[in-house]
Design goal:
There is one protein chain. This protein has about 270 residues and is mostly beta strands. The chain is about 0% helix and about 50% strand. The protein contains no helices and 17 strands. The protein has strands at about 10-20, 20-25, 35-40, 60-75, 80-90, 95-100, 105, 115-120, 125-130, 135-140, 145-150, 175-185, 185-200, 210-220, 225-230, 235-245, 260-265.
Length: about 270
């Protein structure tokens, strides 16, 4: 894995993927002068961490339901709609709870709607718990103490193999628009719309493709409470945070359910 620059800024956790493994990185305020404190190791399915300033933010507890609706329109006029409804929470220490369910077509009923997997990440105790209702098994991953690694410079330019000049494709035009502030489900949020224009010929398209993305962020929670992504290639996806309650979640939410088999593991540090 190659790190091209020093990580600094708000204390918290981030996740980086590379070379077939995941890396848990913990940045610290003291490390803002030019170092990064990390714990490294291979992760299992369902590993999830919150980044500083967002999901892992301490001091902004909440419980909510995240509903995502994806609508795709086919060339013959057929409309396909998929909906997922997930529960999530965060306590004042930054511990997070996230459910995951298979995406289901609207109006469908079946066993897939009963299947649920859960991720609980605890940045204070450096643990991640993953369990699902199918296996009735919970995996508790314990991460070692962070260690400091030094910066690794990028590959020198002279070491890069020279290639024949390639004509650069026409750039994608991007515009951002401030949508102001509005209240969404009882929460004040700041909106931003991004419009990307993919020029004709860049992806084999004979006409420009216009993609718009709208995000509404609640500053006090550090959460996106609503987003709308409209892409003619894949359809329209709308996410809305509902049943949002500020305050401490039920502590039992972060505990493995009774009757589940618990397996502990500690990943070996990677050099």
């Amino acid at each position: 894995m190659r790190i091209g620059k020093v990580v600094s800024g708000v204390a918290g956790f981030v996740m980086m993927l590379g070379a077939g493994q995941a890396v848990l990185a913990q940045t610290s305020a003291a490390g803002a002068g030019g170092s990064m404190v990390v714990s490294m190791g291979s992760m299992g399915t369902g590993f999830l961490v919150g980044a500083g300033g967002s999901l892992g933010t301490a001091g902004a507890p909440y419980t909510a339901t995240r509903k995502t609706t994806r609508v795709q329109k086919l060339a013959n006029g057929t409309t396909i709609t998929h909906v997922t409804t997930l529960k999530e929470a965060r306590d004042s220490s930054g511990r997070t709870y996230h459910e995951s369910r298979p995406e289901s077509p609207m109006g469908s009923e079946g066993d897939s709607n009963n299947f649920v997997s859960v991720n609980v990440h605890d940045p204070v105790n450096r643990t991640n718990i993953f369990w699902n209702s199918n296996t009735k098994e919970a995996i508790v991953t314990h991460f070692p103490e962070p260690r400091e690694i030094k910066r690794i410079d990028p590959i020198p330019a002279q070491a890069v193999t020279q290639q024949m000049p390639v004509r650069a494709p026409e750039p994608i035009k991007t515009e951002r628009e401030d949508l102001g502030i509005k209240t969404i489900n009882g929460v004040e949020a700041k909106g931003t719309r991004t419009t990307r224009v993919i020029p004709a010929g860049r992806e084999g398209n004979d006409q420009p493709i216009i993609v718009t993305s709208e995000h509404w962020m609640a500053p006090d929670l550090g959460l996106v409470v609503m987003s709308v992504n409209d892409d003619p290639r894949t359809g329209t996806s709308t996410m809305e945070l509902t049943d949002l309650e500020k305050g401490e979640p039920d502590p039992a939410l972060f505990q493995v359910p009774e009757g589940y088999t618990v397996k502990d593991r500690t990943p070996e540090p990677q050099n």
